[in-house]
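step: validate -> pass
step: tokenize input -> pass
step: predict -> running
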Amino acid sequence: MKNKKVLISAALLLIVVIVCVSVFVSCNGKEMLAENLEGTWTCPPTQIESGKDANVVCVRTFVVTRTPDKLEGEVQFSGLVNVTSSLTSEQGFLQAITFSASGTINAKGTWLVKDDDEITVSYDPASVVADFPAETILLPNAPFSASDSIAATYKNAIAQSVSDRMKIIFMTKASELLEVEDIVMDKDNQSFVCEVHDKKYVIRKQAAN
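step: predict -> pass
step: emit ->
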């Protein structure tokens, strides 16, 4: 009977030790992830919209800062965006006129470590700023020359339209709570693999200036 009590006590002690070790490893993993996330990270060019109306490619950069001694912090997002689309007969043309536009998207948000391989990111939709200057608009097959006054008129209109459209797209995306899962850092903490909405990404750290 005494031996049985000893075995039960030993088993309970082992369970407590395992639980404590698991909690410690988990907390330590979260702390390590929060520490390693600080820095400036870049994602390769990604197609964020594709269809008959437009093709949008974005190179995304994230500047991640950590609140001291916390498993959270702030993130500043900036995107270099290239948009290819076309004007159609609805805009008064007999043929489709292709155009491209280049610009930037910026937004601010916060991040929080949820597990040792998972964070959530929340952007403030009100912080989204889109800028697509008219001088970046190209009209390669337009029936008028780039020096014509009508070209400047269309470029200004396109620039405003693209800026408004991209802002809406990114505000919609920013309003969603982003779950970044299955984060695996490389041994030098210079890149990591993650999964967002069931899609894999490789994010690389920019070298410090």
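step: describe -> Strands lie at 39-50, 54-66, 72-87, 97-115, 118-123, 129-131, 178-185, 191-196, 199-205.
step: cleanup -> pass
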